[in-house]
């Protein structure tokens, strides 16, 4: 099952465009594209495709300069120079030391400055405290890449951020690409070249955090590249992700991310990987305030609101894990496993207790454990005593493992068409049975295209059955903990379900404004908040249904409006910067007569006067009662820009905080998926005798609000439709109230 990777998908040549280093990158261009490339921009002017930087000469340069090179013992630069000399020899690059006072370093001729280099270099490694002057010289020398190890930039605060801005500007003027600053030597590690098969490409913002994945080579798992991005003054995680996704040897990309330089760039790169079917597994720091604060001090990055980061990654198929051990195991499995033949998981063990425990955990992890057909159970009972359960989990009782029956049982399980994954937990070594069991599993894995996973539970890890047999197999996925096994298998099945159905939302994103755009923009008030009446006009411009209502400025007009709308009615104060009307007593509901309307008008205006609230009038609204109260809104995230949220509305929005979020653009499938993520999703299906809600109408509102976010996102800081009353199926949805805050 292991040893082969995902299928290769054809990529449109425009979307896979490779940008060579030294190619002009205009200041107003996004990822190498100019404003003239309107076909590649959405309606808000954001890019729809990511260019792939040509990083071949970074990882495999023909010529390298080491600026600040040293061979004097005791100097920090000496060890780095020594490692770079060895690396250059391995990759076949010519290395040129640069130092103002040395004629030779480690026996190599030394140039006094970059301007005296004997040839243009592909890569310059800068071992200097201030890289800016050297960057400018490298630009004149037509260097393609540079690496800056120096720290003291954005990770240190405002002054460091200004220094990093100056460095970024120098890089742009020079026309080269920069890795760093605040990076390390991980890109120049010695990778094993005796390993075959699909490889893991590694991206980290902390070199130490990549060590566990790098060590997978000692278990026979191939690594192809390691990109330690540091502060990402220029080259960022997204650049390397796009590049690795196009590499034929890449089986999976493993990432340790402290913060993202640009959310849109990351999603475009993740989209490229999803199009190619390349799994991306990521640890993303920032789930807690402490983690976010520490990440900012380390690499100077925005960690982003974690619920939005989590949703965005899930939306584009990035598999988020928490621990480095999970990153190891999940990336290794996804890199090497073939696509599943089925999504059914069978737990096979020699102990009923082990099988029951594993089955509980597997089911809790969301895996499907199908009951094996009666005919299959009867077949298994040829070799397993009748009193043992073989429905799934399969308990063989131990004895069949010691002879030919053990292999026959495994083959029979794998032959069942409902089975895609076999998991065998071995809680500890018990020779000779455990040795025979793992040998049978390895041999069976060689003859099947289904995934065979073994959990070797011994804490020792020196047993021959583990070190020689399991780790010696390229077909069996071996884990040390059942939890990591289940996490990886869940990710494996989810990844292939996702990629099989994936349609890039960027392909269908609107490129030109809708007819509603001009009318809606005229309603906005820069820096202000719209009144409810104006906010509803904005919704109406985008085809979102609102109640029948009239804005009035006298009690008599209120009575006439109520008669035209039809009783009962709701009356509400309407004014800019007026929020939480109910808390101030500025909402009256269930009014059924002209006298009640007159009294309500006087009371509302009196309260507004007392509270010092400026009104543009009183809204007389149609009263709609029966439905599910939801909230649909738009907020602006520092990393990703406009985001769309849907959740339970009314007072529940603040009490339960039950909401799902997506980053535009997204399609109808994602809008519907948002609803399934809600804990209160059952309310839409109809509970306690209530009819099912009009989910189709709710989805349509979500998509229309997304269109507003795309077209008005730069001008709208916040939009809340709360409550959006979703009526019974076939009757639509009505925005009863709305709040719009302009930027």
Tell me what you see in this structure:
The chain has 743 residues and is of the alpha/beta class. The chain is 35% helix and 20% strand. The chain is built from 24 helices and 29 strands. The strands form 7 sheets. Strands 24, 25, 26, 27, 28 and 29 form a 6-stranded antiparallel β-sheet that branches. The protein has a 5-stranded parallel β-sheet with strand order 4-3-7-8-9, with helices on both faces. It has a 5-stranded parallel β-sheet with strand order 11-10-12-13-14, with helices on both faces. Helix 3 (132-140) runs parallel beside helix 4 (158-174), helix 6 packs parallel to helix 7 (263-276) and helix 17 packs antiparallel against helix 18. The longest helix has 20 residues, at 482-501. Residues 4-17, 19-37 and 290-303 have low confidence and may be disordered.
Major pleated sheet: 6 strands, antiparallel
Please give the alpha-carbon distance between the first and last residues.
54 Å
β-strand number: 29
**Secondary structural class:** alpha/beta
């Amino acid at each position: 099952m292991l040893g082969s990777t995902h299928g290769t998908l054809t990529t449109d040549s425009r979307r896979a465009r490779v940008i060579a280093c030294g190619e002009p990158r205009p200041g107003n261009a996004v990822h190498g594209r100019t404003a003239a490339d309107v076909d590649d921009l959405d309606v808000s002017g954001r890019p729809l495709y990511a260019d792939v930087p040509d990083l071949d000469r970074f990882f495999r340069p023909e010529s390298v300069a080491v600026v600040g090179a040293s061979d004097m013992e005791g100097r920090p630069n000496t060890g780095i120079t020594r490692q770079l000399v060895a690396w250059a020899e391995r990759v076949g690059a010519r290395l040129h030391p640069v130092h103002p006072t040395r004629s030779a370093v480690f026996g190599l001729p030394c140039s006094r400055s970059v301007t005296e280099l004997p040839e243009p270099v592909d890569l310059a490694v800068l071992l200097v405290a201030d890289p800016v002057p050297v960057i400018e010289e490298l630009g004149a020398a037509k260097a393609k890449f540079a690496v800056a190890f120096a720290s003291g930039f954005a990770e240190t605060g405002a002054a460091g951020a200004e220094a990093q801005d100056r460095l970024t500007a120098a890089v742009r003027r020079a026309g080269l690409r920069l890795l760093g600053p605040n990076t390390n030597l991980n890109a120049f590690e010695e990778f094993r070249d005796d390993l075959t098969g699909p490889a893991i490409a590694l991206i980290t913002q902390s070199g130490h955090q990549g060590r566990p994945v790098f060590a997978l080579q000692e278990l026979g798992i191939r690594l192809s590249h390691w990109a330690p991005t540091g502060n990402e003054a220029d080259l960022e995680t997204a650049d390397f992700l796009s590049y690795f996704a196009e590499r034929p040897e890449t089986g999976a990309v493993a990432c340790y991310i402290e913060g993202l330089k640009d959310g849109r760039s990351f999603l475009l790169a993740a989209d490229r990987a999803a199009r190619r079917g390349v799994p991306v597994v990521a640890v993303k720091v920032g789930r807690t305030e402490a983690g976010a604060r520490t990440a900012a001090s380390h690499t100077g990055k925005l960690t982003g609101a974690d619920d939005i980061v989590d949703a965005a990654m899930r939306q584009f198929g990035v598999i988020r894990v928490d621990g480095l051990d999970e990153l190891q195991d999940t990336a290794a499995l996804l890199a090497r496993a073939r696509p599943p033949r089925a999504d059914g998981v069978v737990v096979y063990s020699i102990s009923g207790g082990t099988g029951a425990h594993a089955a509980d955990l597997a089911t809790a992890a969301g895996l499907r454990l199908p009951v094996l057909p009666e005919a299959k159970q009867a077949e298994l009972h040829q070799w397993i005593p009748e009193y043992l359960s073989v429905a799934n989990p399969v308990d063989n009782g131990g004895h069949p493992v010691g002879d030919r029956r053990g292999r026959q049982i495994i083959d029979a399980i794998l032959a069942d068409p409902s089975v895609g994954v076999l998991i065998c937990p071995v809680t500890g070594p018990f020779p000779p049975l455990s040795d025979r069991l793992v040998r049978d599993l390895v041999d069976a894995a060689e003859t099947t295209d289904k995934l065979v996973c073994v959990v070797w539970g011994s804490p020792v890890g020196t047993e021959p059955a583990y070190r020689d047999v399991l780790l010696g197999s390229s077909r069996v996925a071996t884990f040390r903990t059942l939890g990591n096994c289940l996490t990886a298998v869940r990710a494996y099945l989810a990844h292939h379900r996702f990629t099989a159905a994936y349609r890039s939302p960027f392909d269908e994103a609107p490129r030109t404004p809708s007819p509603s755009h001009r009318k809606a923009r005229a309603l906005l008030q820069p820096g202000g908040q719209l009144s409810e009446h104006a906010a509803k006009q904005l919704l109406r411009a985008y085809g979102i249904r609102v109640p029948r209502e009239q804005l009035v400025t006298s009690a008599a007009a209120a009575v006439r409006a109520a008669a035209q709308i039809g009783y009962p009615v709701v009356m509400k104060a309407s004014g800019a910067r007026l929020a939480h009307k109910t808390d101030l007593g500025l909402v009256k509901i269930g009014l059924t007569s002209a006298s009640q309307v007159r009294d309500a008008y006087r009371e509302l205006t009196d309260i507004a006067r007392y509270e010092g609230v400026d009104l543009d009038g009183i809204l007389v609204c149609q009263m709609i009662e029966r439905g599910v109260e939801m909230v649909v809104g738009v907020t602006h995230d520092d990393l990703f820009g406009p985001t769309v949220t849907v959740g339970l509305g009314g007072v529940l929005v603040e009490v339960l905080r039950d909401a799902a979020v997506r980053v535009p653009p997204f399609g109808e499938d994602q809008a519907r998926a948002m609803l399934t993520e809600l804990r209160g999703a059952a309310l839409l299906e109809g509970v306690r005798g209530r009819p099912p809600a009009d989910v189709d109408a709710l989805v349509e509102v979500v998509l229309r609000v997304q269109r507003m976010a795309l077209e008005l996102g730069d001008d709208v800081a916040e939009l809340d439709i709360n409550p959006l009353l979703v009526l019974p199926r076939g009757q639509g949805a009505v925005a009863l109230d709305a709040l719009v805050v302009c930027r």
